[in-house]
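Deviations from the work plan: none for this task. Representative record:
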Amino acid sequence: MAVFKQQVAKKAPNLKIGVIHWLRENLFSSVVNSVLTLLALYLIYLIVPTVVNWALFDATFAPVTNEQCGREGACWSYIIEKLDLFMYGFYPPESYWRPQWVLILALIFVWIAKLLKQHKYKTKIVTTLIIIYPIIALFLLYGGLSLEIVETHKWGGLMLTIVVATAGIVASFPIGVLLALGRQSKMPVIRFLSVVYIEFIRGLPLITILFMASVVLPLFFNEGMDMDKLLRALIGITLFQSVYIAEVIRGGLQVIPKGQYEAADAMGLSFVQKTGLIILPQALKISIPNIVGSFIALFKDTTLLLIIGLFDILSMVHLTSSDENWLGRSTEGYVFVMVVMWIILYSMSRYSKALELRYSTDHKN
Amino acid sequence: MNTTSKNIFLSLLALTGGLYAQADTLSDVQAKGSLSCGVSSGLVGFSSTDSAGRWKGLDVDICRAVAAATLGDANKVKFVPLTAKERFTALQSGEIDLLSRNTTWTTTRDTSLGFNFAGVNYYDGQGFMVKKSLGVTSAKELNGATFCLQAGTTTELTLADYFVSNGMSYHSSPSDTSAQSKKGFSTGRCDALTSDQSQLYALKTTLKDPSSAIILKDIISKEPLGPVVRQGDDKWFNIVKWSLNAMIGAEEFGINSNNVNAKFKNPEALRLLGRSGNLHKHLGLSKKWAFNIISQVGNYAQSFDRNVGKDTPLNISRGLNALWRDGGILYSPPFR
Amino acid sequence: MEKIKSPLAFLNNNQIRAFLFQVIILVLIVSFFYNAVGNLLNNIESRGIHTGFDFLGVESGFDIAEHLIDYSSTSSNLRVFYVGLINTIVVSVVGIIFASIIGLVIGIARLSNNWLIAKLAGGYIELFRNIPILLQILFWYNLVLVSFPSPKQSFELFGSVFVNLRGIYLPKPIVTEGFIWVMVALVLGIALRALVKRHFNRVHDESGVETNTLAYSLLLLLVLPVMVYLILGSPMVFDYPVLKGFNFKGGMSLSPEFLSLAFALSIYTATYIAEAIRSGIESVSKGQKEAALAMGLTPRQSLRLVVLPQALKLAIPPIINQYLNLTKNSSLAAAIGYSELVSVFAGTMLNQVGQALEIIFMTMMVYLAISLMISLILNIVNHKMSIKER
């Protein structure tokens, strides 16, 4: 009698599992692919060791002078010595706690908003926080009352970059919402004005708008209306950015099904109620990833402040590398700023991708 | 339209229009309690900030002098750093009360832009810096060379004129700031750096190896640099002009910040210091206007030595900027 | 009970309300501009500022490093405007061409089944799109291109191309009389090739026989013009760059300003184009690829004949938008001094003339015109595609 005996499964042939299989499938599946792989490897071999050696193994980190720093590797001592300038510009060192607290407060407020989750008054509290935060931040940064006033021409470095990008997005947001609604409006004059404004600004490079704000704008004011240079730059940036926000929100508005409008009308809601309670909340929610996207774009654009003579983090490279004691170290400066900007921008773009994923699952069944 | 929106409407109207008050600059400055002075954002010797953010330089001292004359305190200056591009509209628009930014006095600037030049605080001239290794000794040998220069300055115009009139050709590599053009020179992107001589000296000291470059003897232009005010306010124009003259006059009379309280016999010196006469009345200033300038800022020689002269790495000789009696062309009209 | 009629009852009518609202907004905006312009005129008058466009006729007095039309320091300021405009267009077109090529390659590589290539392409995109473009321009200009040798130690290729830190010097072709016939031959070749291609396409449609037209193409596009060129006795000479004194003389040169700007613009914009192409390819349904493979097409044929045509259709609108962005970004040349519109006209000339208002206005109008033109193209493209859709 034949007894059924369970056979031990044979192992898959070596070529179909493990590292070798993976390599064959993914790197050497055909002649062309193999050639490409080898080329890519050669490229990596050319670039990576050089960069890593320069930036890490041959680099100097100790606090030494320019002459003591080697020429083969990077001299990070320069960055370390000038770090305050890169971060805060000419902001008085004894007041560094002020921008620091502005950042800490932002984190605390975000944390509070997260804690609240489904709290009854969540919307109200969050709205209050959003409104009072810029006021506190401005007070801390600029001063007034008992705080010593720090004039805006002393602001600089990464701090200025962040302040300009944040203030720009906050100020352009309400204008952008109005423009987006205006573009959808049934009132011909309003729609016309919004479209003209949006198309006009969208056709212009930011730099011409900044030139206009820094060079031409003062001529449009009365004498005596003394406008700060930074404020003028911010006006330019707000005019510019509001248009992109408007387009993002318009995208959100277009996705809202017609039924929502009709239902709101049927319930007898006024235009303001309909827009504020039904349409905008949905449109804004859909637009959040893209709003983060335009914040990223604005953050990149703040480097243009260099061209109109404000000291953002990029201008600090030019400023610090012309210091007699650190001549010829602009390479380290550029690389440092690149790395800082890249880390910030990359993490924001990751965040925006994550948001996109989260919100898109909400809407697809 | 309800009342609230009507109010908003009216206040918006008021905000955007009305109030064409054409106040004179002196009362404006005195009411504000500070002088807005446009300076270069960074030019060693003329206006630059030290590590603590304090402004210093020859141009900066003019701002301080005017503040001392009008407000009695040389520190009551709000410095507005300006790019070359911004400087003229900043003055035209009233953002600054005085422009003291290494600005060359030319006909066009004096007439068609609505400005007045209140004098000359530094007589400069355009020159060349070249690498020693090129073996060039005269500008005439620079045919076909590439020049680094700062865009949008009179330098660019003068260079073009010079080469046309000498029948030579050249390439230019313009850049936005003087730091950038220095970088172009030191990396070898251009053969020669051309700029005002004062700047060449300043830039030379900041080269990695200052001895590798030489400044040619040739000077191809006149560059009188001076403070600028808006046209149409003669009172203010006079104040700036005579603040500068007070510094030059003080040097002539041997008054400086250390001996300003001493006794002087020269009647002109006494009138300058407000101890006799009533010059201050015609200027609309206090009796101590010039005393304040000299005690707080110093005379021209002190300012020169401190910022660009023998006490600095620039070590620029007085040259044209010496007093007329010492072989220069610096000259203040008499105080009477 | 009688209803008390409020004097403001007419406000309850939606149409009247909308009308009033628009009137108010219009009045506000008009009064805002009225006052702003009033202030402006007032300022201009009270400060004696010179206005008007007569400065355009005045001699400029300065030189421009790169100009494609005749220009010297005695040319008018209007000429400066044209030089700047042409340079803007040149650098944008060059940037657009290279950005498209790099973008297409990277976009396809990103979806390659070669793991390493796909990762490298992804790394390229993440690296370059997250560094601000201005920083990249400065990086190429101030760090990479200055590390090239000085003119006397130039890299030399074939004795006629020189690379040094002042740019790339190439032989400049100078055409003589007979060269026009070579161009005619080339045009003829292109036309004939199109005919041949159409013929074989028809054959393919009717009989399914695929013919490789490479040989014909080569013959018509390359051999024909070259033959004509040789028969006419080489009617084109080259002006070679020669090191004379301080610099290379003769030939054509590409300045480091131009190179770094074009380089940075192409590399940066390519990341966006690659992403557009990738999402275009990904949106082509899997069934299409499978069907193509099932029909016996090779993977490359399926990519070229089935996937890419559909993917590009979706990708083209965002790509055209990127072209617009690239053109706008070319204005950042102001930071390194490439002689384009913003740098030379709204920069150098503005400083000399001082009439900021007119100059900035003209500059803005140029960009507006360019952007309207690109939007027009985009609309036409969109329109064409929406008709073809089934």
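The mean pLDDT of chain C is 85.
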